[in-house]
Design a protein that fits this description.
Elements lengths: L1 H26 L15 H8 L1 H34 L8 H10 L2 H11 L5 H6 L3 H7 L2 H24 L5 H8 L4 H29 L2 H5 L1 H4 L5 H10 L5 H27 L22 H27 L16 H6 L6 H32 L5 H10 L5 H12 L21 H24 L4 H9 L4 H12 L1 H16 L3 H6 L7 H10 L3 H43 L4
């Protein structure tokens, strides 16, 4: 019972309770006033469809998110296939490139691409872009382009984890019946990978329509109005229009919740289990003459998603002034010296952000897999509540969840339960509230990705363990955990990297005088110190890259050490 009570309590306190506060705010706009009233009003909900700006923002978010999800699903699946099932050169390095693309925050990518195509910018000084190209890019086309580059790693990570346990027995059976290899892949393997593709594709959709960084950079530069920016505007107007922000969020919840419920309905209609006791090792496909075109395709994707935007950010961090070009006198390290100067708050913010990311990733990974297992493979009471909460709350933008925390955890009635007030426990306005918001925002994603991976574990294996007397914790620790350790590592890294650059919740909930790295970076941008802001961002990117390398290299080194130790012991065994 404890296994379901702990995740249920976390979901209730960190997700359901803040969201309930937002929903109440949208219906009872004066419920959190100093003198609260329960007079209902639907003016905020009506404004979404009666005001042209919010109406078009809602439509733009939906259709741009749908196109982004489709493109990200195709691109992520193709790259995962090339990396895991072909003899593509340097395919083993693709995981690292994908993770680097993933953890670069959207506000950096959007700002970098805006600066690449700005008239009079450094690239334009050398290439002289035609007006048609700049106009075409600074449009919905450019927004979808940036969103696709930001979200395809979600699909890649999900599909590669699924491919790890997809053997060749089904494909071999199709080949024996006369199907060519390409047809076997499309008729057998792709349907078996469908849960992982669908789960990650819908997460890409949710990420695209709630991406605050893209909405405030390239979308604004392209005059494309999106819901996240409208929510931000509603919160930052004077007086603050929380009623409209809550209404916009509510419609986003409904849209993505319906999409995810559709996913659950589709997965219930068929079986997608691929892991069993008879799996054969997967066969590597030789690309032959297609090897170098495929390599060029992968290189082009990573140049667009990684090299160009990261190169622009790095260049800006090394320049005195953006408008003075690449003259020798314009290059400097002063920006890095300024952000690392003795006595600055930047190092404290870096350390604070690192510990928050480590804590969030660890808590989310440890809780997310049991929640996914309870939802998918048990009949425990309360599992449908867990499923509903994780389905619906994946739609929650970080900025709205943060608003919910402001209402929920700063409410006057909490003094009666010992939270807040002159004698109660201080929670609001502390770093623990920020950590709770991180966990609440990450847990639904981890649960849905874990659910997609769990679809491939055959029920026969779990039933056999239960017959032998294994309990729920033993199933998780001895069977599910080892089989899905690749997925667990991917989920941990996903949460860690996203937390290191989380902006929306950090802006609203960081304790006074204790900002996180993204808050400092955006603050530097807001005061037009782009060089120092990019320098601080590059330091953050470097730190996360180091964590990524260590996470990949340490298990590899431990494996080599274990193999060497086993060989040494076998040599020392006396021969009779």
């Amino acid at each position: 019972m404890l296994v379901i009570m702990v995740p249920g309590l976390l979901l209730l306190l960190f997700i359901v309770y803040p969201l309930a506060a937002i929903i109440l705010q949208s219906v009872f706009p004066h419920i959190y006033d100093p003198l609260p009233t329960l007079v209902p009003s639907l003016d905020g909900l009506k404004t979404v469809f009666t005001t042209s700006q919010t109406y078009f923002a809602f439509l733009n978010s939906l259709w741009l998110g749908a196109i982004t999800a489709l493109q990200a699903s195709i691109l992520g699946t193709v790259l995962a296939f090339l990396a895991r099932r072909t003899d593509l050169p340097l395919r083993r390095a693709m995981d690292g490139f994908v993770w680097i693309v993933f953890f670069i925050p959207s506000f950096l990518i959007g700002e970098a691409w805006s600066l690449i195509f700005i008239r009079g910018g450094i690239p334009d000084q050398f290439l002289h872009f035609p007006d048609a190209l700049i106009t075409s890019f600074l449009s919905p086309t450019g927004v979808v382009f940036v969103l696709t580059l930001k979200t395809f790693p979600l699909v890649y990570l999900s599909v590669t984890a699924a491919l790890r346990w997809l053997g060749s027995e089904f494909e071999d059976a199709a080949r024996l019946l006369g199907a060519p290899r390409w047809r076997a892949w499309f008729s057998v393997n792709i349907p078996l990978l469908f849960p992982a593709i669908l789960a990650a594709g819908l997460i890409a959709f949710a990420e695209a329509i709630s991406d605050f960084g893209t909405a405030t950079t390239i979308a604004q530069n392209s005059n494309v109005i999106l819901i996240p920016y409208q929510i931000y505007t509603a919160i930052n107007t004077s007086p603050v229009n929380f009623e409209l922000a809550a209404a916009l969020s509510l419609f986003l919840f409904l849209a993505i919740g319906l999409a995810l419920l559709l996913q659950a309905g589709i997965l219930r209609t068929r079986a997608f289990q691929a892991i069993s006791g008879k799996s054969r090792p997967a066969q590597i496909l030789s690309l032959h003459n297609w090897k170098w075109p495929a390599t060029m395709f992968c290189a082009l994707i990573f140049i667009l998603a990684l090299v160009l935007p990261l190169g622009m950010c790095l260049m800006l961090s090394l320049l005195h002034a953006f408008g003075q070009g690449l003259a020798a006198s314009n290059w400097t390290l002063d920006n890095y010296a300024a952000v690392l100067a003795h006595g600055s708050d930047n190092l404290d913010a870096l350390q604070r952000t690192l510990w928050l990311a480590l804590g969030n990733a660890s808590i989310t990974s440890l809780v997310g897999l049991p929640v996914a297992f309870i939802i998918q493979r048990t009949r425990l009471p309360g599992r449908q509540f867990l499923s509903f909460v994780t389905l619906v709350t994946i739609a929650v933008p970080g900025i709205i969840l943060a608003c919910g925390y402001i209402f929920a955890w700063n409410a006057p009635y909490l003094e009666y339960v010992g939270i807040g007030g002159p004698t109660g426990i201080e929670f609001y306005g502390t770093v623990w509230l920020l950590l709770a918001a991180y966990v609440g925002g990450s847990l639904p994603y981890a649960t849905r990705l874990g659910s997609g991976a769990l679809e491939q574990i055959g029920q026969v294996m779990l039933d056999a363990a239960r017959i032998q007397g294994a309990g729920l914790m033993q199933l998780l620790s001895h069977i599910v955990g080892p089989l899905l350790r690749s997925s667990l590592v991917s989920i941990w890294l996903l949460v860690f990297t996203s937390t290191m650059f989380e902006l929306a919740a950090s802006e609203l909930l960081y304790p006074p005088g204790q900002p996180t790295m993204p808050v400092l970076i955006v603050g530097l941008f807001g005061t037009f110190r782009f060089g120092q802001g990019m320098a601080l961002a590059m330091l953050n990117v470097g730190l996360v890259t180091l964590a990524l390398i260590l996470t990949r290299l340490v298990p590899w080194a431990l494996g080599l050490l274990l193999q060497w130790n086993m060989r040494r012991k076998s040599v020392n065994v006396p021969q009779n």
